[in-house]
Each structure stands twice: as structure tokens, then as C-alpha cells.
């Protein structure tokens, strides 16, 4: 089902009964209801429908030369770092401690060396983040794609604080552990969080991580582009459309036929959510396992 | 064949008790009242509703960088009575209506999440209809402008807008015209003439009290028939519900 087909089905319940006849603000009302239903549906469905294994690369160290630094300042020249380097550990000659890239032109800690121009600034690929949003959560241990390498160990102790693990501080080599560091997304910082690795990678490594995602929000461009919905077909009519109509009921363009009909719409929306919540949690249930439903 | 202006005038003059075959032989006041009645009926028909055969397409040629298009203004430039919509880019892609000047002024900010006021150039996806007084001291004082967002860019194409055009008023000089009245399906006897006859009862020349009630009743019936064709919504208002039997 395409986005426009979806919106047209939902907009049957608007005052005009036709998405194409709605004013742009009203089309946004329908879009809002459609997005709310998508988010509710994905929240109700089992996690495996949101999960994927995403491949990343921990890049090899990069050397920067002619870098202007100011003692006591976190600012560096505009665009010195790439967006992909946010969260990475940076070692600046003259600075007594390791630092971290916080933004494309900012450091986490003030540079404590002498003001001037420095060479041999090392940026390590010990940090990565998913550029695929909306990001839900990490649901699997990061692994080297080369499975002959040792497993990466989650550092549970330090995950909450997001601090570097003392066991591996100031070491460079093959990563052995990982943890997450939050970047203050509620204050407008991006990304939401980075996954840190230690020791700092001495070369490029390929990493796989199981992540889960919320559905992408539908935008005006999805209507114009007639994009396809990322929803399994079996949940369209039973779940998604009734839930979207239920969400539409609070919008100004909704046309109420009767209180009894409104009640039916509420019930159908709730039934749609229940239907999604009752899907089997694990599609790989073997038939010899307890709790496995009859016939499977 | 439909009713001509002359035939309608002869009929209306007869309601004034004047039986002629050449309407121009009537007095100037009688001719004027007849033409007023004809125009009254025509204007009522033209305002009867979007589904009573008043909807007409109008083509607007878009220009690179031009956001506002005046489609009707003043007495000489008057063509459009109202824009009903839909408006379709290149006669195919539906454009969405904006509801206010504010939405137009902050189009990029509200709908595209950008920081700038107004709209950037691009392929139009929305329009706003502006109904204005054109500041003329006489005649038709309406002005209708259509605004597009984003602002048309290079090779912008056309927009086909569905409108209601205005009624072209007759003058006394055309009382003998043999041109047919512009009435849908030539339903002049059941719709147009009852309205015009009702209007002629308001003439100072009218003194046929014996037929006044029946003329008014016929006129009221014609108005009721027109009402079933729907209301006359503004472009930003919903269309009237219409029962369609399959």
C-alpha cells in the first residue's frame, strides 16, 4: 500500500471523504493521524519487526595537520571534523589528556596545551552511531563481522555513566569492549548516542550491530512521491487503517456520523492494537517448544 | 432550441399587461424593468450552486518567479465570480488549498519545516485564493488573486482552476436580441422564466394582482429546485452533500 492509498482510506472519514479535496492543513491532520497509527502499530508489534542487523565500520585513525588550537577553548576551526567523527577520541599534541569530538568544530574538554598550530592530531574511529532514524534501541551485542576475532564485551558498569572504562584507558589496539554514551538529544544535540569502543582501533574494523527502529514518519514528500508504506500487508486493514481512523477522531476535519458510529470506530481501533499486540513474539518458535501454539 | 432574449422580453412584458411582438416598442421604463428581471434571473442561476452547470475550467499560465496571479478585477477585467477548485497543475496534479494568508506567508515554516518566511521556488503544491476589493470607485469592485506555493520555478507549466464565471448582464439595447439565453439544458420554462416572472412582479409597471401569487409561487418552486443543486461554497469550505442514487 502506498502512502497516498493509506491516506485516502483514512480520509474517507473526513468531512469531504476525499483526501485530495482537503486543504493542506487538513491533509496535515490526516498525516498526523496516519503517523500516530504507524507509531502505535510498531509499538504494539513484536520487536523482531523493528529489528535489523546494521553494518558499521570503525574507521582507521586519521591524522590532521595545521590545526589551530586555543588554550582553554573547546572551539576549533569550522568544519575541522566530519559529522561521522562526532564522539570519536581525538589526541592533540600538547594537550595532556585525550579529548573527544563533540561537534564538527568543538571538543568536549577545553584544550589545555599552548595556543598555536599543531600537527599530527589523531582522530580515532572508536565511536559510531546509527544515521538511520528514528532509532529505537540496541538489541544485540556489537560483533566483528570477521567472526574469527574475539567477541566484544559490553561494559555494563560504565554504560549508565558513559565513561571510558579504566581497564582500557589510553590504549590503542583491537577493540575488546563497548558501551554507550548519550549525547544530550533532549537539548538538541545529535546524535542521540554513540557506541564507544576500547581500546582505540588501530585500524579499520567492520562491526555488525542488531538495532531496532521505529517507523519513519510520513511527510508531504511521501504523498507526492507515492512511497510505499513499511508495514507488513497483514496489518494494514485489521490494524493500521482502523487505528489511523481512531486517531483522526480528535482532528478538526473528522466527520462524526453518529455517537454509535464513533463508538464502533473506537472499538475497531482498539481491536487493531490488540491484534498487533497478540502476534507471536518470536516467529521462529519450534514446534517442540512449550508454549508453542497448536498447529505450529 | 432555447428561449431567446427577445422571446423572454415579450413574455415578461405580457406580465405587465403589454402585448407586443417587438419589445422595443414598450416604454423605456418597461424595457428597463424587463431587462432587470432577465438579469436578476440570470444572476440567481449563476449563483445557484456549483453543480448547477456553473463550474468552468480556467487556465492560468504560470511564470517563473511569479507567485500571485490576478484572474479577475474591475468591470473590464471581470470574469470570475468565485474559484471553486480543484486547481490542478498541468491539468493533472491536484494542488491543496491553503486556508489563510498566514499559511501562505509562512508556507515554508509551517509545511516544510524551513526557517524562511514565504515560499521558496519549486513545483507548486498548494494555492491560496485571495478575494479583494480592488479600490475602484465605481463598477465591479472585486479582485480575485491566486497565489501558489512553492513559487513557480523554471518551466512552470499551467494550472487549470475550476471557477464560476460571472453572469454577463444584458442591456436595454439587446432587448430584441435573438440570441438564446444561456441556461443549462435550455430549461428556460421551468427555471429561468419563473424566476424572471417573479422579478417582474417587483416592477412599478406591474399591476396584475390576479396572477401575482401564482407567479411568486412558480418562482419559489424554481428556487427550491435550484437549492437541490447545492449551495455555493467558497473554495475553502466543504462542498454540499448531494444524494446520488446508483
Structure description:
The complex is a heterodimer of chains A (296) and B (246). Chain A has 296 residues and is of the alpha+beta class. In chain A, the strands form five sheets. Chain A has a five-stranded antiparallel sheet, with no helix packed on it. In chain A, strands 1, 10, 11 and 17 form a four-stranded antiparallel sheet that branches. In chain A, a hairpin with a 2-residue loop joins strand 5 and strand 6. The longest helix of chain A is centred in the N-terminal third of the chain and has 21 residues. The radius of gyration of chain A is 25 Å and the shape is elongated. The two termini of chain A are 29 Å apart. About 2% of the residues of chain A have low confidence. With 246 residues, chain B is α+β, with helices and mostly antiparallel strands. Chain B folds into two domains: 105 residues, no CATH class; 111 residues, no CATH class. Helices cover 29% and strands 22% of the residues of chain B. Chain B contains six helices and ten strands, in the order H-H-E-E-E-E-E-H-H-E-E-E-E-E-H-H. In chain B, the strands form three sheets. Chain B has a four-stranded antiparallel sheet, with no helix packed on it. Chain B has a four-stranded mixed sheet with strand order 2-8-7-5, with no helix packed on it. In chain B, helix 1 crosses helix 2. About 2% of the residues of chain B have low confidence.
Amino acid at each position: 500500500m502506498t502512502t497516498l492509498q493509506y491516506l485516502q482510506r483514512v480520509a474517507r472519514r473526513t468531512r469531504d471523504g476525499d483526501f485530495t479535496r482537503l486543504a493542506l492543513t487538513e491533509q496535515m491532520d490526516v498525516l498526523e493521524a496516519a503517523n500516530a497509527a504507524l507509531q502505535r502499530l510498531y509499538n504494539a508489534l513484536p520487536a523482531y519487526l523493528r529489528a535489523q542487523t546494521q553494518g558499521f565500520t570503525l574507521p582507521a585513525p586519521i591524522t590532521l595537520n595545521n590545526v589551530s588550537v586555543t588554550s582553554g577553548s573547546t572551539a576549533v576551526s569550522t568544519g575541522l571534523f566530519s559529522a561521522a567523527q562526532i564522539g570519536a577520541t581525538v589526541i592533540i599534541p600538547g594537550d595532556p589528556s585525550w579529548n573527544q569530538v563533540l561537534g564538527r568544530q568543538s571538543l568536549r574538554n577545553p584544550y589545555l596545551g599552548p595556543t598555536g598550530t599543531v600537527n599530527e592530531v589523531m582522530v580515532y574511529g572508536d565511536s559510531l552511531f546509527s544515521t538511520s532514524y528514528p532509532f529505537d534501541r540496541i538489541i544485540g551485542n556489537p560483533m566483528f563481522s570477521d567472526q574469527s576475532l574475539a567477541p566484544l564485551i559490553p561494559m555494563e558498569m560504565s554504560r549508565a555513566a558513559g565513561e571510558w572504562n579504566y581497564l582500557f584507558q589510553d590504549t590503542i589496539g583491537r577493540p575488546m569492549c563497548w558501551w554507550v554514551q548519550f549525547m544530550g538529544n533532549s537539548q538538541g544535540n545529535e546524535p542521540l548516542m554513540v557506541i564507544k569502543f576500547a581500546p582505540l582501533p588501530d585500524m579499520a574494523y567492520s562491526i555488525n550491530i542488531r538495532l531496532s527502529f521505529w517507523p519513519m514518519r510520513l511527510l508531504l514528500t511521501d504523498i507526492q512521491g507515492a512511497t510505499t508504506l513499511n508495514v507488513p500487508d497483514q496489518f494494514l486493514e485489521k490494524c493500521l487503517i482502523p487505528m489511523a481512523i481512531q486517531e483522526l477522531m480528535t482532528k478538526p476535519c473528522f466527520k462524526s456520523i453518529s455517537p454509535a458510529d464513533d463508538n464502533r470506530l473506537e472499538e475497531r481501533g482498539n481491536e487493531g492494537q490488540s491484534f498487533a499486540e497478540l502476534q507471536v513474539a518470536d516467529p521462529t518458535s519450534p514446534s517442540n517448544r512449550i508454549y508453542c501454539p497448536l498447529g505450529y | 432550441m432555447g428561449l431567446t432574449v427577445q422571446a423572454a422580453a415579450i413574455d415578461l412584458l405580457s406580465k405587465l399587461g403589454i402585448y407586443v411582438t417587438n419589445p422595443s416598442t414598450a416604454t423605456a421604463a418597461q424595457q428597463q424593468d424587463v431587462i432587470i428581471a432577465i438579469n436578476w434571473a440570470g444572476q440567481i442561476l449563476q449563483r445557484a450552486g456549483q453543480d448547477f452547470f456553473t463550474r468552468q475550467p480556467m487556465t492560468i499560465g504560470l511564470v517563473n518567479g511569479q507567485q500571485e496571479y490576478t484572474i479577475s478585477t474591475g468591470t473590464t477585467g471581470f470574469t470570475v465570480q468565485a474559484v471553486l477548485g480543484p486547481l490542478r497543475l498541468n491539468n493533472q496534479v491536484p494542488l491543496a488549498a491553503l486556508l489563510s494568508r498566514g499559511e501562505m506567508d509562512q508556507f515554508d515554516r509551517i509545511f516544510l519545516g524551513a526557517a524562511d518566511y514565504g515560499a521558496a521556488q519549486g513545483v507548486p503544491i498548494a494555492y491560496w485564493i485571495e478575494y479583494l476589493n480592488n479600490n475602484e470607485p465605481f463598477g465591479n469592485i472585486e479582485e480575485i488573486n491566486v497565489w501558489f506555493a512553492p513559487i513557480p520555478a523554471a518551466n512552470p507549466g499551467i494550472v487549470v482552476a475550476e471557477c464560476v464565471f460571472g453572469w454577463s448582464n444584458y442591456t436595454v439595447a439587446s432587448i430584441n436580441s435573438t440570441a438564446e439565453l444561456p441556461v443549462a439544458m435550455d430549461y428556460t420554462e421551468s427555471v429561468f422564466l419563473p424566476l424572471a416572472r417573479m422579478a417582474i412582479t417587483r416592477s412599478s409597471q406591474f399591476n396584475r394582482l390576479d396572477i401575482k401569487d401564482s407567479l411568486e409561487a412558480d418562482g419559489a418552486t424554481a428556487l427550491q429546485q435550484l437549492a437541490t443543486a447545492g449551495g455555493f461554497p467558497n473554495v475553502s469550505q466543504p462542498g454540499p452533500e448531494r444524494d446520488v442514487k446508483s
